[in-house]
Specification:
single chain; 348 residues; Rossmann fold; 39% helix; globular
Length: 348
């Protein structure tokens, strides 16, 4: 194996005291190291904010780009991997290629293909990349992005055993605070879906919401992961369950990795096809009514709930752990063979 130096450019959140230490950037950094490589992390938004006395990202982005180029020149990475580095402009990518002709460039995006602004920025970066990665697996939709041929790949949301440490499936639901829970934003149709659950779940069912749903406060840091582990099941609600265009194949936010990684039995809308990735480790539902019915069924059959949770936990940690995903990114970026995955690893 060739040991490689990897520079990850993304939002590492120094400003917020690293509260999102379980974000995809951090997980991939862990994965590369576990695979035997060396990693430097460059927090683009923090560098931009700290570059001027006004602490303004837009005013500091030019200086940030200079610092990134200087960092890359002295570190001589084999791969530079960009997250949602929206502050970087085309000139920066061109200079990196000019100064580091042997360095491969790659980027990833965890937003769904129907988020037009995020996709536009992703595509702007993608035209300068040797490989780009999306957590949406719907190839026809990805083809419409117009990225260079054979450079766009599907990437599952990674889990990390040092971050998702709970094993909720080992606990009887009576020992947990909640029978069901959803933590996440209430934007678009989310609050409507949650209201339906609250109205139709039985009175005895302990269902909790939080994490900005219904205007609640955002949950961060270890408290967020601990809160996830206080419920037996969680619906992995899409933003809009009524529009097929917003249910792209294999797409989920990183919540699915956090839930399965913590051993929480997860219910996912059937149209997403996530059971192709996690097999019997998730529960698929067809409608809001079906979701209620299956949540109640799992309440009454706790052995089945725990069995499904154990399968989902095992498969997520086996198939989509951070080392597997990091090694997959390297293989794709360097044009090397990457086989043995349950998802389609061929470029779009």
């Amino acid at each position: 194996m060739q040991v490689r130096r990897i520079l990850i450019v993304g939002n590492f959140g120094r400003r917020n005291l690293l509260r999102r230490y379980f974000n995809t950037e951090y997980k991939l950094a862990n994965g590369f190291v576990r695979a035997g490589h060396h990693v430097l992390s460059f927090s683009d938004r923090d560098y931009a904010r700290e570059a001027t006395i006004w602490r303004n990202q837009q005013r500091g982005k030019a200086k940030m780009a200079e610092r990134l180029i200087e960092t890359a020149k002295h570190y001589q990475p084999h791969l530079i991997l960009f997250g949602h580095a929206d502050l970087l402009e085309e000139s920066c990518f061109l200079r990196l290629k000019e100064n580091l002709p042997n360095t491969r460039l790659a980027c990833f995006c965890v937003d769904a293909v129907f988020r037009s602004q995020a996709m536009a920025r992703f595509c702007e970066r993608g035209h300068h990349m040797h490989a780009s990665f999306s957590t949406t697996g719907e190839r026809k939709r990805l083809q419409t992005l117009g990225l260079p041929k054979d450079t766009l790949f599907f990437m599952p949301n990674p889990v990390d055993a040092s971050m998702e440490t709970a094993r909720v499936f080992e606990s009887h639901h009576d020992s947990l605070r909640f029978d069901g829970q959803f933590l996440g934003t209430g934007i678009e149709k989310r609050d409507e879906q949650l209201s339906f659950l609250q109205k139709h779940l039985p009175d005895f069912y302990r269902f909790e919401t939080g994490g900005r749903a219904f205007g609640s406060e955002r949950l961060d840091s270890t408290h967020y992961l601990q809160q996830l582990a206080q419920a037996a099941v969680s619906p992995n609600l899409p933003l809009n369950d009524e529009i097929s265009e917003q249910l792209p194949y294999l797409y989920s936010s990183d919540r699915i990795a956090q839930l399965l990684g913590q051993g929480v039995t997860s219910l996912c809308i059937a149209q997403s096809g996530l059971d192709d990735l996690y097999d019997d480790g998730i529960v698929s539902y067809a409608s809001r009514e079906d979701l209620v019915e299956k949540m109640v069924q799992l309440y009454h059959d706790d052995d089945q709930r725990r069995k499904i949770g154990a399968i989902g936990h095992r498969l997520a940690h086996e198939r989509t752990n951070s080392q597997v995903i990091a090694s997959y990114i390297l293989s794709c970026a360097f044009g090397e063979s990457s086989k043995g995955h349950v998802w389609n690893s061929e470029p779009v």
